[in-house]
Specification:
single chain; alpha/beta; globular; Zinc-ribbon domain-containing protein; UCP012641
């Protein structure tokens, strides 16, 4: 089982397994007399489990959520804001009412239908998105939570306005305008995705998600039997704690191209169908700087 306190797989007694192990295959261990692991305890609302389909989809959702929490633990980011808002998850099924995936004051709501490959692909095509995954949803929504922690009322707020735009513009009006557009073209040199153009907060959340995509993939690369130079091996020792942003991008650029070529050789869509332009690179760099600065503040305060 996975021990989140040591960030490692370990052999534990059966009574240290999460109570959700049987129903959704949770492989995280519990602490002390707790019944649920750190990940499952963050899910405050589970979907209606009256069908085997919902159980299967919930299993997929929780697997993606555990990957997100692994990212955050490796980055050293907390699950509570300065104002006391705590990260929590509502996983809801829309048999009765439509469910919108989103974030509010630390609570991430996810529509269970996003775990259905057919449903998610239909929505990806309908919204003209090159990429739409469960893990991508989680990484995007948690980005909204960390904007408040890493940027709002910090020294990074002014650079944020300069690079991402003025976040004080009316959010609801901006989102309504985005979905009302008839012209779906956008400045691909300035934004990582079309949805990033809707509002500076969404641009940040999209960029934050892509930063996690990069770190997680590089972390997986570290375990492969590849021939790398000394600097690359140093970066892959722990990509989550790498202080040199350029070193991360130096590895990511050829890796993402290679992943796309491999997928094309198998007749599949590109694994990473995005271009990191100089402007997007600057936005990713700001995300990295904000995280590194926060970690340093926490270290000095300890």
């Amino acid at each position: 089982m996975f021990d989140p306190s040591s960030i490692n797989l370990t052999k534990l007694a059966f009574n240290q397994s999460c109570r959700n192990r049987e129903i959704i295959g949770c492989n995280w261990c519990v602490k002390g007399a707790d019944w649920y692991c750190d990940s499952c305890r963050l899910t405050r609302t589970i979907p209606h489990l009256g069908s085997t389909r919902n159980v299967m989809l919930w299993r997929r959702v929780e697997e993606a959520k555990r990957r997100l929490l692994y990212d955050l633990r490796r980055l050293g980011l907390p699950l509570v804001s300065r104002s006391g808002d705590r990260v929590a998850f509502d996983i809801l099924s829309d048999e009765i009412n439509p469910i919108l995936t989103g974030h509010l004051s630390g609570v991430i709501t996810l529509n269970l239908a996003e775990a259905d490959d057919v449903e998610r692909e239909a929505r990806r095509v309908a919204f003209r998105e090159p990429y739409r995954t469960l893990l991508g949803h989680f990484r995007h929504e948690i980005g909204h939570f960390y904007w408040d922690l890493l940027v709002n009322s910090t020294t990074f707020q002014a650079p944020f306005k300069l690079i991402f735009g003025d976040e004080t513009q009316d959010y609801q009006a901006a989102i309504s305008s985005y979905y009302g557009r008839t012209d779906r073209s956008y400045d691909r040199s300035g934004f990582i995705s079309e949805y990033a153009t809707s509002h500076p907060w969404e641009d940040w959340a999209e960029t934050f998600a892509h930063f996690l995509h990069i770190l997680s993939t590089l972390d997986s690369l570290a375990g492969l039997p590849l021939s790398l130079d000394e600097r690359a091996r140093q970066t892959l020792t722990d990509p989550y704690l790498e202080s040199d942003f350029e070193a991360l991008l130096a590895l990511w650029s050829p890796l993402s191209r290679g992943l796309n070529e491999l997928n094309r050789s198998l007749g599949m869509n590109d694994a990473y169908p995005f271009d990191i332009s100089p402007a997007v690179k600057g936005k990713l760099h700001l995300v990295h700087m904000a995280i590194v600065a926060f970690r340093e503040q926490q270290r000095l305060a300890a």
